[in-house]
Amino acid sequence: MRHLITPLMIILLCSPVYAADPQDTLDRYFKVLTTRNIQPLPELMTSTSMKRLKTIMDTALLQEGRASVQLQQRMFGGPVDAEKIKATPPDYYLLRLAEEILQAAEMQRFFVDNRRIIGQIVEADNMVHFVVRLFMHQNASQNSDLLVYTLIEEDGVWKMNFPPILTQTLGLIEAMAKPTK
After folding, report:
1. Hey, is 42 helix, strand or coil?
2. Is the pTM of the predicted complex or chain greater than 0.90?
3. Treating both helix axes as pointing N-terminal to C-terminal, what angle do 66-76 and 47-62 enclose, rounded to 10 degrees?
4. What average pLDDT does range 101-105 have in this prediction?
5. What Rg, from alpha-carbon coordinates, does the chain have?
6. How far apart are CA 25 and CA 21, in angstroms?
7. Residue 140 belongs to what H/E stretch?
8. How many CA atoms lie within 13 A of 62 on its CB side?
9. Do strands 157-160 and 141-154 pair parallel, antiparallel, or not at all (unpaired)?
10. In a 3-state reduction of DSSP, which class is residue 122?
11. CA neighbor of 132 nearest in space, from 160, 158, 107
């Protein structure tokens, strides 16, 4: 059987959003989940996500009160001064939070086994959303969840907005940092 390449197929194959790059980035993220090697994580995230992480963490760590002291303990092993916090790069925070998330999952015996990309939504030439079914297990119990991952092209490289678990974790830290009235 002969395969014909139509003009539409050529456009789709040559379009940057249909290039392998966004899915390659997503695949690298899932490799982090399954191998639990978090070192490549910072290079996979968008600069906007990393700036937001730095802002949230600095704000939370610099607040007065018990919550800030507890967060400093989690991030640095004890109290630190404002200069140390301001000098800490977002990569450090991301790796610490990822480490905590993976340790918590391990303690609960919760592991990601596999994933299946259900589809993708191209929002713009530089933005793609992947709908993914994650397959997980906890002890003998099997489970799955449907999640959306957003990838954005930055300077010719496809990167991720923070995945749902990191977004939730940052939301909790941000809420904790808000002054009580």
Report:
1. helix
2. no
3. 130
4. 81
5. 19
6. 6
7. none
8. 13
9. antiparallel
10. strand
11. 160
> What would the two tokens of residue 4 be?
């014909």
Provide the sign of the torsion angle of the four alpha carbons 53, 161, 22, 37, taken in this order.
positive
* C-beta neighbour count of 75 within 10 angstroms: 20
* CA dist., res. 78 & res. 45, Å (int): 27
| Confidence check: pLDDT of 175 > 70 | yes
**The tokens of 39 are what?**
């070192």
Structure tokens at 86: 């301001």
Q: How many residues does the chain have?
A: 181
Q: Which of 142, 164, 176 is nearest to 67 (CA)?
A: 176
Secondary structure class of 178 (helix, strand, coil): coil
Per residue in 52-100, pLDDT (tens digit) is: 999 999 999 998 888 888 899 999 999 999 999 999 999 999 999 999 8
Residue 128, token pair as written in the block: 């793609």
The identity of residue 88, as a single letter, is T
Q: Where are the beta strands (DSSP E) in the chain?
A: 110-124, 127-138, 141-154, 157-160
